[in-house]
Each structure stands twice: as C-alpha cells, then as structure tokens.
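Duplicate of #3305? Posting structure anyway:
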C-alpha cells in the first residue's frame, strides 16, 4: 500500500465563505488574519469545527483519507455547507459514512 502524503500547505484545500471579515478570534484567543492568506493549520481549524466560515474546496477529500470512520462522520455532522458534506463523503467508502452524509444532506434541501 502506498502511503499518501498530505501536502505541507493544506490551506490550498480551504476557502472562506459568508464573511467579509479579515480576521477571526478562535475560542483559545488565537487570532487568524486572513489578509495574510489561508493559514497552514487550516486542517486543524476545520477539524475543531468551531470556525463557521471555513469550507472545503474540491480535492480536499485527500486530507481525510486516513481519518477514522467515526471522525469523518463527526466532520460531516459539523459541516456548514452541502459541498463540504459531499467532499467529506468521498474520503471513505464506508456505508456508515455514506449514510451519515445522506442524513446531513437532508438539512440542505430547500
């Protein structure tokens, strides 16, 4: 089995949405300044689930390939956008993940 390397700059797989803010203060009082670009620790920030404006870009499923099924399901439940759910669901072939994604997608149907 070939081990997939996660790119050093994971920020390329993330985007901001629904905000005009140039900075954000995290619960631990860390300030993220987006005028400097996407932070290199965007993956860690996304996994925490408490930053409401950070979304996934196409191809980001590579970042979650080695995650446990339980963690992927957790990230799906925290997802703020339909696109994020679809991207996360590509990171695993598990039926549990597919089912969690289908359930979460129901919240985005208008």
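Output from current build:
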């Amino acid at each position: 089995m070939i081990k997939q390397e996660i790119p050093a700059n994971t920020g390329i797989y993330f985007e901001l949405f629904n905000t005009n803010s140039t900075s954000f203060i995290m619960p631990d009082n860390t300030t993220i300044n987006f005028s400097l670009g996407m932070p290199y620790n965007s993956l860690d920030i996304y996994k925490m689930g408490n930053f409401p404006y950070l979304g996934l870009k196409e191809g980001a499923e590579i970042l979650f390939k080695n995650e446990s099924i339980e963690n992927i399901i957790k990230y799906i439940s925290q997802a703020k956008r339909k696109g994020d759910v679809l991207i996360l669901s590509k990171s695993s072939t598990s039926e549990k993940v597919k089912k969690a994604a289908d359930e979460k997608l129901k919240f985005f149907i208008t």
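Confirmed duplicate; merging threads. The first strand starts at residue 14 and ends at 16. The mean pLDDT is 85.
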